[in-house]
Design a protein that fits this description.
Blueprint: E1 12-15, E2 24-27, E3 36-37, H1 50-53, E4 70-71, E5 74-75, H2 78-96, E6 101-105, H3 111-125, E7 130-132, H4 134-149, H5 158-163, E8 166-170, H6 174-177, H7 179-187, E9 194-198, E10 211-213, H8 220-233, H9 239-245, H10 249-259, H11 263-270, H12 274-286, E11 290-294, H13 296-299, H14 304-317, E12 327-330, H15 337-342, H16 361-369, H17 382-391, E13 396-400, H18 404-407, H19 411-420, E14 423-428, E15 441-444, E16 453-456, E17 462-465, H20 478-488
Parallel strand pairs: 6-7, 6-13, 8-9, 8-11, 9-10, 11-12, 13-14, 14-15
Antiparallel strand pairs: 1-2, 2-3, 4-5, 4-15, 16-17
Helix pairs in contact: 2-20, 3-20, 4-14, 8-10, 8-11, 8-14, 11-12, 17-19
Length: 489
Amino acid sequence: MDLLNTTGPDPVHTTCPYCGVGCGVMAYSDGGTPVAGDKDHPANKGRLCVKGASLHETTGQEDGRLLFPIVRGRRSEWEQALDEVAYAIQDSVKTHGPQSVAFYLSGQLLTEDYYVANKLAKGFIRTPHVDTNSRLCMSSAVAAHKRAFGADVVPGCYEDLELADLLVLAGSNAAWAHPVLYQRMKASARDGRRVVVIDPRRTATSELADLHLALRPGTDTVLFNGLLSWLADHGGLDQAYIDAHCQGFDNALASARAAAPSVESVAEQCDLAPEDVETFYAWFAQTPRTVTGFSQGINQSIAGTDKGNAIINSHLATGRVGKPGAGPFSLTGQPNAMGGREVGGLANTLAAHMDYDSPGARSRVADFWGTGAVADGPGYKAVDMFEAVHRGDIRVIWIMGTNPAVSLPDSARVREALARCPTVIVSDCVAHTDTTDLADILLPAAGWGEKDGTVTNSERRISRQRCFLPLPAEVKPDWWIMSSVAGKL
């Protein structure tokens, strides 16, 4: 697709805000000219999905926009609104302590916005209660990576999806959720390349499959534990790699054997044909260049972390990590879920992927920020945060770029919690959502095309989001809003 307007103004190179693929796009300052895929961007190489190709239809700056601050139902000047936010935070900290204040962020924020929020909250207000809607889709993958590698890192890149001779897609309907990556997978088909799709449903992605394992929902851990056991019994391990780079293998294998001792046991538990299970295991053993891409079907589960680790263990046991065309690959949902995590946008982490209990981490961050100390330890995660709001432990909550009254589990209870909260602050670009309708203070934030900064995609590639539209009315970028409140404080 090539929709470049060669007679109009020069396009601005920026990044699509829809999903974790992080496609490069070329947009125009009039906001109405169709966007085009950026052929020089390594994530998409000019490809766009239907959402990306329709971005110009979302850049209207009037219809439904929040264009000026609103304080308790009345239009306000910025100075008054900032004073109100600062007073609410100061009063709550003085009366109830720093932990009475919370920030709930979004994978739609730029990394710079995330950083300022994290610094303001954990470094100066000194509340640990900073979490994000990325928690809902990615927290189990984060925990699996930290458990396996010691850090929240994805050891792969998009080229691996094309180089792999065996592509395993677990809990991922990439054709719908990550269309541009799916197009890259499809375009890289060749003789000898096989695709296994692991999904209870026959989705559009299943069209790519040489083998579709429609397993019983929730049994992914059994399938991959069985794979580890099978590899050990059939000479499929890379013992030299295990000895040099892994710890705890014997315990992992013992646990896998206990859960999935045989192909027949796996087939029975997963409701699969034994010959299909055997075929998958044999293909995995025979194919050094294997990538296992996993997404929300793995992550969004009460056992999501264990599922992720079972996948990663199979790659560690065969030495298939960090090599061309080989590795476990977590496919992120939101455009900047990874960027937010990089700068500490989760309740249990500090900036730069550091944990609160890492030796010297808190003092290192405090010294860098020029503050006396940072928050004492991990804060409430998303669901627990709103429970704390409900029972009155959190009395000021600042929500940015997300709609938890709809997106969080048990949304009726979330709405009840927000209705009870003494001060609800919402920064958004949309005037009316279920969450903004419950806000005491509404702050008009910049939308896509109006702000400038960076995002990090699923392969940990940092891309620029560049503004190509003016800020309408009294709208401001998120970092400016938070910095201005910090100045008031």
